[in-house]
Amino acid sequence: MSNDSYEFMKNFMIGGFAGGVSRTITSPLEITKMLQQNYPNYYGKESTRVIVRSIYNKNGISSLFKGNLVNCIRIVPQNAIQLSFFNYFRTNMDSKFPQNKNINAFLSGSLAGIISYSAIYPLETARSKLSVDISGNNKQYTSLWSTLKHSAKNNGVRSLYNGWLISSIGMIPYQGITFSTYNYIRDKYNPNNDKLLNLPIGSFASLCAVTATYPCDVIKRKYHLSGELGNKQYTSYKQLMKTMYKESGLVGFYRGIIPCYLKMIPSSALFFFTVELFK
Fold first, then answer.
1. How far is CA 163 from CA 97, 220, 240, 276, 278, in A?
2. What backbone phi and psi angles, to 5 degrees, belong to 141?
3. CB 191: neighbour CB atoms within 10 A?
4. R_g (Cα) of the chain, nearest Å
5. Contact, 135 vs 58, CB < 8 A?
6. Which DSSP symbol is given to 133?
7. What is the pTM of this model?
8. From residue 88, how far is each of 78, 106, 131 by CA, in Å?
9. pLDDT (mean) for 144-161
């Protein structure tokens, strides 16, 4: 195996492991975020603590991890593909354009993000449906296979890619900002690559990225559940955004951002820490 192939596979495994660990730990916050995004009338004005406690009291601790197995099945290959392609693209770009390292990191992160997200997108759609059905009353969505099968049968295979376009558009600045900010701050203020110092750097990079692109995530989630689980049916992005603005104003595009911040701080810190630890 060549050195390039070895590095690619090493990054693949490290990225997958880091993603699985970070997402499992922050699963309750992810569920809280999605409930606020999709059911603003019920959960929109509740605090993260109140929602988590309510879910736990009504449905037990397992409900706080509903869909997490699918999330790990999704995030492991996504982060593995993302990290390996990011390092591949950045290494090649840095060798050809060494004077543009920040731009190289941004472009590499964007390309890696689109490739990785496209590869696992049906799993993302399934995860959204499984996670918000916290009571387990909807028997069509009891497992990954049943969710994919029911969605494809009733809404067509194309429905598994609902929200893909807006996700890809959002992925360009999201991953671009995440990786370029992380690499810039790490290289400038942590030249000795102190592993613990990379924790807040990773958190800050993701907070910058999620703040800039959060509306794309809200639109994507609502499109995932279009016409299902008590949600309205949407036929276009224009209709969805117009309805959201009419019902909630600009605030509607940032529903769930507080639990998202709370999730991203440990999740991103753990991801980058694990990546640097096993390099």
1. 34, 5, 11, 32, 34
2. -115, 70
3. 8
4. 19
5. yes
6. -
7. 0.77
8. 15, 13, 33
9. 89
Read off the amino acid at residue 130. Answer: L
CA distances from 65 to 58, 127, 221, 224, 258 (A): 14, 11, 18, 19, 19
Q: What is residue 252's DSSP assignment?
A: G
* pLDDT score of 135: 67
Nearest in space to 173 (alpha carbons), one of 221, 85, 109:
109
Arithmetic mean of pLDDT, 236-240: 93
Catalogue the E-assigned strands of the chain: none
pLDDT tens column, 18-51: 778 888 888 999 899 999 988 888 888 889 999 9
Q: Token match 């910058």: residue?
A: 208
Burial of 165 per CB tally in 10 Å (0-12, 13-18, 19+)? middle
Structure tokens at 107: 């472009």
Token readout for 54 is 């309510």
Following CA atoms 111, 115, 168, 107 in sequence, which dihedral angle do they give, to the nearest 10 degrees?
0
Q: Which of 59, 11, 17 is nearest to 35 (CA)?
A: 59
Which of 57, 27, 26, 51 minimizes the C-alpha distance to 39?
51
Q: How far is Cα 199 from Cα 22, in angstroms, rounded to an integer? A: 12
The residue to which tokens 């639109």 are assigned? 219
Q: What string of H, E and C letters represents the secondary structure of 99-161?
A: HHHHHHHHHHHHHHHHHHHHHHHHHHHHHHHHHHCCCCCCCCCCCHHHHHHHHHHHHCHHHHH
